[in-house]
Design brief:
This protein has 459 residues and is α+β, with helices and mostly antiparallel strands. Helix 5 packs antiparallel against helix 6, helix 7 crosses helix 9 and helix 9 packs antiparallel against helix 11. The two termini are 43 Å apart.
C-alpha cells in the first residue's frame, strides 16, 4: 500500500470508506423495508378482521361470499371461524376446510388477539401471516382467523435486494472514479510544483515554485517552500561571498610572500636584507595561520555548531596570557595594555576558544584603535563580561551595525574582517553574546558576555 501513488491510495481509501457506508445504508434500508412490510401486513390483517367481525357476529354463514366481496382478496387472502376447541365453523374456499389453529392456539385466541406465522398456508403453499381475534357468535365464544401470504412483500424484498446487489457496486465504481478524478485535480498543483522543482538549477537566481490560488494547505505549502528557497538562495549567496572574500584575503599574503621570496633568490643579497625578507614572509605566514584558524572556526560554527569543552577558567591568568602575546606589538606602536580583572575569579568556559576570542578583540583594538588598550572582566547579573576598550575615535556607525558579520572591514582598512565574527561565534557557542559600542568617555569598546555557569549551545 505504501508503494502506491498517493492518488491511488486516497482513491482506494475513499472506495473502502464508501463501500462500508453503502453496505450499511443498503442493509439498513433493506431491513427497514422488511420491517415496514411486516407492519403494513399486520395493519392490513387488523383492518380485515374489523371488517369481517360484524359479518361473523351476526351469525352469517356467507364468509366464503364475503371473501369475494372486497373484504378479502381472492387467491392470497383467506379467513375462517373456529370454535375455542379448534373446530372449523366457516372458511374461505381456498382453505378446503383445513384448520389454521391448533386447540391451544384457538383457546388462547378466545381471550385476546394473537399474531401467528405459518411456513405455508393450506391450499396456497406459501408463507403466511395470521391474526386470530375473539368474536362472539349468538352469545357463544368463537375465533375469527384472517390471513395473508407474505409473497407480495417477499417479492418486493427480492426485487430490492437485486437492485442493491447490482446498484451498490455500480454506485461504488462511479464514486471511486469521481474520487480518483477529484484527487487528481487536487494534487495537480503538487505535480506542477514537483516539475518546476525538477527543472530548477542551482545557477538560476530567483526561481520559485508555482503557488495555486487561494489559502488552502497546498497554497501554504507552496509559500513555505518558496520562503525556504529564498533562505537557501540567501545562504548560497553568503557562501559564495564567503568563498570569494576568503580567496581574496588568502591571495594578498600569498602574493606578498611570493614577491619577497622571488626577490630574495633573484640575486645575491646582503644578510640583513635576507633577514628582513624572511621576517616579512614570516609575518605573512602568521597572518595566513590566523586567517586559516578563523576560517576553520567559522566553518565549524556554520556547519555543525562549534563544540566547546567547558572547564573552570581562572580569569586573571587568562587575561595575562592574552595580553602577553601583544605586549611586543603594543610596544612597537608605542601603546600600552592594561588589565582590570576586578574581583572576578573564574568562569566556566573553553579556555582555548575564550582566549582566541579575547585575542581577536585585543588585536582589533591595537590595529584600528588608539591609546591604551584596557582588557577588563566584570561579573554582573549572573554573567561575566569581558571587555576590550581603547582611546581612539570609536566604531563607525557601519561597524556598529555590521562589525560582527564575516568580512566586515573597518574603514581604517587592514585585517581579514573575520576577527569580530569569530568572537560572536565563540560567545554564542558558550550560550552568551557579543557586542560593541562607543562609551560616553570616548574610544571604542567590544565585549563578550558569558553566563557565570556557561552552557554550550549551537553557534
Amino acid at each position: 500500500m505504501t508503494g502506491l501513488p498517493i492518488r491511488l491510495r486516497i482513491t482506494l481509501g475513499f472506495a473502502v470508506a464508501m463501500a462500508i457506508v453503502l453496505s450499511v445504508v443498503g442493509m439498513v434500508t433493506y431491513f427497514l423495508l422488511a420491517a415496514g412490510f411486516s407492519t403494513d401486513l399486520d395493519r392490513e390483517l387488523k383492518q380485515r378482521a374489523q371488517d369481517l367481525t360484524p359479518v361473523v357476529a351476526q351469525g352469517s354463514s356467507q364468509l366464503a361470499d364475503a371473501a369475494g366481496s372486497g373484504f378479502i382478496e381472492r387467491g392470497e387472502s383467506f379467513a375462517e371461524v373456529v370454535t375455542p376447541g379448534g373446530r372449523v365453523l366457516q372458511a374461505t374456499a381456498t382453505l378446503n376446510g383445513s384448520a389454521l389453529l391448533s386447540r391451544a392456539e384457538a383457546s388462547r385466541a378466545t381471550t385476546r388477539s394473537i399474531f401467528l406465522d405459518r411456513r405455508d398456508a393450506p391450499g396456497l403453499d406459501e408463507p403466511a401471516r395470521l391474526l386470530a381475534t375473539p368474536v362472539p357468535i349468538a352469545g357463544h365464544p368463537a375465533v375469527l382467523v384472517v390471513g395473508n401470504t407474505r409473497e407480495n412483500g417477499a417479492e418486493a424484498l427480492r426485487h430490492v435486494r437485486t437492485q442493491l446487489v447490482i446498484g451498490l457496486p455500480l454506485l461504488l465504481l462511479l464514486t471511486a472514479g469521481l474520487g480518483y478524478r477529484l484527487t487528481g485535480a487536487a494534487l495537480r498543483p503538487v505535480e506542477e510544483m514537483r516539475r518546476r522543482a525538477a527543472a530548477m538549477s542551482g545557477a538560476g537566481a530567483g526561481q520559485r515554485l508555482p503557488v495555486p490560488p487561494g489559502n488552502d494547505e497546498l497554497a501554504r505549502l507552496g509559500s513555505t517552500l518558496n520562503e525556504l528557497l529564498g533562505r537557501v538562495e540567501a545562504t548560497l549567496a553568503r557562501e559564495r561571498a564567503f568563498v570569494a572574500n576568503a580567496s581574496h584575503e588568502l591571495r594578498t599574503p600569498l602574493a606578498l610572500m611570493r614577491t619577497e621570496l622571488e626577490l630574495a633568490v633573484r640575486r645575491p643579497r646582503p644578510a640583513a636584507e635576507l633577514t628582513r625578507a624572511i621576517a616579512s614572509a614570516s609575518e605573512e605566514v602568521q597572518r595566513l595561520t590566523r586567517l586559516a584558524d578563523d576560517l576553520l572556526v567559522l566553518a565549524t560554527a556554520e556547519d555543525s555548531g562549534m563544540r566547546v569543552d567547558l572547564l573552570p577558567v581562572d580569569i586573571p591568568p587568562l587575561l595575562h596570557r592574552v595580553t602577553a602575546r601583544f605586549r611586543a606589538t603594543a610596544a612597537a606602536l608605542d601603546r600600552g595594555i592594561r588589565i582590570d580583572s576586578g574581583s572576578v575569579a573564574s568562569v566556566e568556559a573553553d579556555p582555548a576558544r575564550l582566549e582566541q576570542a579575547l585575542g581577536n578583540l585585543v588585536a582589533n583594538a591595537l590595529q584600528h584603535g588608539a591609546g591604551t588598550v584596557t582588557v577588563a572582566a566584570r561579573e554582573t547579573l549572573g554573567a561575566v563580561v569581558f571587555s576590550v576598550g581603547d582611546e581612539g575615535k570609536g566604531f563607525s556607525p557601519a561597524m556598529l551595525a555590521h562589525g560582527f558579520e564575516r568580512f566586515a572591514h573597518s574603514p581604517s582598512g587592514g585585517g581579514s574582517g573575520l576577527g569580530l565574527s569569530v568572537v560572536a561565534a565563540v560567545s554564542r557557542a558558550h550560550g552568551g553574546c557579543a557586542g560593541a559600542g562607543n562609551p560616553a568617555t570616548g574610544g571604542a569598546q567590544a565585549w563578550i558576555r558569558l553566563p557565570a555557569g556557561a552552557r554550550s549551545s549551537p553557534a
